[in-house]
Structures are given as C-alpha cells and as structure tokens.
Amino acid sequence: MSKVSLTISQRYRYFFYSVLSLSFITGFTFWLIRRFGMVEGDFGPESHFLQYPVLQLHGLSAFILLMSLGAIFASHIPKTWSSKRARKSGISILSATVFSILTAYSLYYLVSEDWHELLGNAHALIGISLPLILFIHIRLARKTRKNKKNKHARKQSRHNKPLKISTIEPHAPT
Length: 174
Fold this sequence. Notes:
Largest sheet: 2 strands, antiparallel
Number of strands: 2
Structural class: mainly alpha
Order of helices and strands: HEEHHH
Helix content: over 70%
Number of domains: 1
CATH class: Mainly Alpha
Strand order of the largest sheet: 1-2
CATH architecture: Up-down Bundle
Distance between the termini: 78 Å
C-alpha cells in the first residue's frame, strides 16, 4: 500500500481529472438536451434520442467519480486536515459533492415530477461549478504550500548565516 501524502500522485490526478471531465461534459450535455433539445414527434414534443444514452454515460462517470472521491476522502483529507491549508475550499468541494449526490439520488428515486426542474437545475448548477471550486482549491493549496516553503527557507537561511568572526591583529612590537 502506498504512503499517504499531502499531494495526490500525478497518475491518479490525471485519472480523476479525466473522470471529472467526462462527468462534467455528459452532465452539461444532458442538461442542454433536456432543456433545449425537445424534438417534434408523431404525438407532439418528445425527448431527443441522445438524452437517455447521455444520462446513462453521466451516471456511469458519476459512479466512477464517486469511487475516485472515496479514495481521496480516505487518504488526502485526513492527512491534509491538520495542515489547515485550503480547508475552506476543501469543505466547499465536500459540500458540493454531497449536494450533488443527494440531488442525483433525489432526482432518480425520491422527488415527483413537480420538483424535477428545480432540483435538476440546482444539481446542474453545482455540477458546473464543481470544477471551478476544485481549481480554486488546488491553486490555494499550491500557493500556501509555496509560501510555507519560502517562509521555511527564509527561516533556515536566517539560522544558518555564517558567523562573523572578527580577528584582532596583534600589534607588532615597537
């Protein structure tokens, strides 16, 4: 098992970003198709033929994203919580994720058709903002890490300054 670190490995980050991108693209595409993609059918307006397959792909990517987030929540969060770096933006990510999970479950299983538009739009709004929140979180964390390293380096250089030794030249006998 690999050692838990404050930073997430590059390979895992690329995998996570890919899955997040797929979830974002399919979710946004589904929202657009559902909102603006009604087509005229034999019996009046009906859903676009791509709406359901895009929703299926979004659901699949969301499940993979949840598993990926589970790995991050189990390793990254406990290790970084004590450092207090980018904690507020991390809580924002966690809140947006929990909201997305609850609204997705509600849309699929709980709410009546009356609530679908409102809850679907709220789910879409949070889903669209999640990559931005993640970007802000990463930038803040990197900035505080860089500042902490610079502060530590300055502190080290202050403590490791060479001692000035003054030499007293002996007087020559006169």
